[in-house]
Amino acid sequence: MEKINNNNSNSTNNNEGALLRGISSAQWYPIDTGIFFIGGINGNVEVWDTNLGQVSQTFYLENCVNSISYSQVNCTNLLIAAATSDPKVRLCDMRTNSSVHCLTGHRESVLSVKWSPFSPNLIATASKDKTIRLWDIRRGDTFLFALDQYNGSGSSTANVDNSDIGSELRGDSKNDSNQSKRYKQKLHKPKSIQSSSSSIIEKRNTKGDYGSISANLTLKKEVATAHNGTITSMVWTPDGNYLVSTGADSKIRLWDIQKGGTNTMINYPNAHNVHKIPNQICLSTNGQYLFHPNGRAIHVYETATGNLVRQLKGHFEKVNCCVFNHCDQSLLSGSNDRLTLYWDNSIDDQIDDQQFLNDEKNQDLLENNSNDDDDNNNNFQSTTTKTSTISPPTTLEDVDNWSDDD
């Protein structure tokens, strides 16, 4: 009985630790606001019931959870992808309450995981090992391919425009089955894995020195890198055709997934991200604008061209995350200063801002005009005073009112 009590107390401590020690990631259940998921620094992934206000399911992963993701396409698979400080990506199955299925291949901790917005089986992961890998969850033996920063399109604009990125809003996007079929034709394994992985494993298993070794681990030196530093965040464009990533090398990259993960070579100027901890970038509703935490500010870029449109300043310390609210077209940001700022980008707010600026300009003009009038009056008064002092004194008529009779 004593041992059982200890186990119960440990599980209770783990449940409390998800809130007390810190939450690293959270996401709503796509089709029901009564459920949301959180990833804890203590290594727990929890499913919360908002109606009851309590945890309904807990997965103990034993490693710090850096990021979680749930598919927006197929909400019935009930799988939560969790990126942890362990090189393995865990898939938490809510039907069986287990997290046995793993995606193995990274060499260091995984900082970001994102489910594809159009394919229910496609996942992108980013790691401290400087690689971004795409996976098909139906085959966990190896990844589909890794993004290569030197695999460029040869053009600074890469034939990307805002109409391509936001095509799903016009209804130009194809259905899921056609996109999945088209995508599979583009995917391919790295040639090195196809050619020599089995022979290396067979030889080592025959000698008995290494045991069972994954193909990804045996050829780890040949995996392409996406950045020259830790990759801290990723985000898919709404149509699922492009992937945006940022890393500790202070580079932002836009990847064309339709072309097998080609680097579009678009330059995003003045990007600053030297921290090796996870952060969160986001896109606007149609993917036209990219919001990137940049020190104490947030840089707003045009996704297709890389032009820096605006800088949002208001935080006093480093900004860690930002999320775009698609309902009212606003932005929320969080920082080390323990403040959450709400940035309103609605049309009414823009009109109010413009009216405020116009009023300020008019007020400044009125103040300047009044100051000029005051200066002119003062100058006139001073001139008048000087003239009166210079003018000769007036002489009074000498009238003698005395008479000899008096």
Major pleated sheet: 4 strands, antiparallel
β-strand number:
23
Termini distance? 138 Å
Number of helices: 6
Write down the overall mean pLDDT: 74
**Helical content band:** 10-25%
How would you write the strand order of the largest sheet?
1-2-3-4
The low-confidence runs, each spanning 5 or more residues with pLDDT under 50, are 1-15, 154-159, 166-220, 382-396
**Helix and strand pattern:** HEEEEEEEEEEEEHHHHEEEEEEEEEEEH
Strand content: 25-35%
Shape label: globular
Q: Quickly give the structural class.
A: alpha+beta
Radius of gyration from CA coordinates: 33 Å
Walk me through this protein's architecture.
It is a single chain. It is built from six helices and 23 strands. It has helices at residues 2-20, 162-165, 176-186, 191-207, 215-218, 347-390; strands spanning 23-28, 35-40, 44-49, 54-60, 65-70, 79-84, 89-93, 102-103, 110-115, 122-127, 132-136, 145-146, 231-236, 242-247, 252-256, 262-263, 282-283, 289-294, 297-302, 308-313, 319-325, 330-335, 340-344. The strands form six sheets. Strands 1-2-3-4 form a four-stranded antiparallel sheet, with helices on one face. Strand 17 (282-283) and strand 18 form a beta hairpin. It is globular. Residues 1-15, 154-159, 166-220 and 382-396 have low confidence and may be disordered.
